[in-house]
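Q: I'm building a small set of examples for a reading group on sequence design. Run inverse folding on the following structure and report the sequence directly after it, with nothing in between.
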């Protein structure tokens, strides 16, 4: 009967002292991009994989996440930002709140698609079918979309406080 070989014993998991109320939060490692859990109240977190030390955002800062459209890296940013620049590939990603996007089923494969209010059509990434968006939706949200687009394009990237370049 074969016996599995283990040349080195598995190291014990590092001990993280629990916070006063036992709550944990998460952030992305600035070195290897792994998702790290840490006790609430910590000021920095050392990654067990790459030993990079990542600063924890100030308490009360509400964070959100998105996947970069250029390199598919997980980005974390301060909720409310209109755009987030990826510090790996420098792609500027639009960070939309739930009330700035809508959903429609693909006209061909029925995949649920998400699009920005005001769009006239949306292309399915699965089957490449272009689904037209109803005119009534566009009329209802046209003013909001115009205002949102003006805000996004006027924003100077260097002045955007919500860009977190320390994630790569």
């Amino acid at each position: 009967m074969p016996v599995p070989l283990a040349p080195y014993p598995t190291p014990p998991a590092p001990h993280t002292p629990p916070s006063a109320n036992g709550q944990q939060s998460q952030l992305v490692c600035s070195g290897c991009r792994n998702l790290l859990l840490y006790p609430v109240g910590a000021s920095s977190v050392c990654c067990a994989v790459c030993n990079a030390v990542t600063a924890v955002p100030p308490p009360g800062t509400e964070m959100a996440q998105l996947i970069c459209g250029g390199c598919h890296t997980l980005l974390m940013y301060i909720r409310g930002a209109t755009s987030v620049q990826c510090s790996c590939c420098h792609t500027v990603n639009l960070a939309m709140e739930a009330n700035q996007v809508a959903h429609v089923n693909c006209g061909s494969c029925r995949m649920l698609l998400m699009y920005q209010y005001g769009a006239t059509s949306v292309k399915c990434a699965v089957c490449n079918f272009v689904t037209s968006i109803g005119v009534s939706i566009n009329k209802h949200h046209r003013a909001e979309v115009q205002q949102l687009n003006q805000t996004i394009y006027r924003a100077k990237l260097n002045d955007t406080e919500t860009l977190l370049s320390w994630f790569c």
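Residues 61 and 78 are 7 Å apart (CA to CA).
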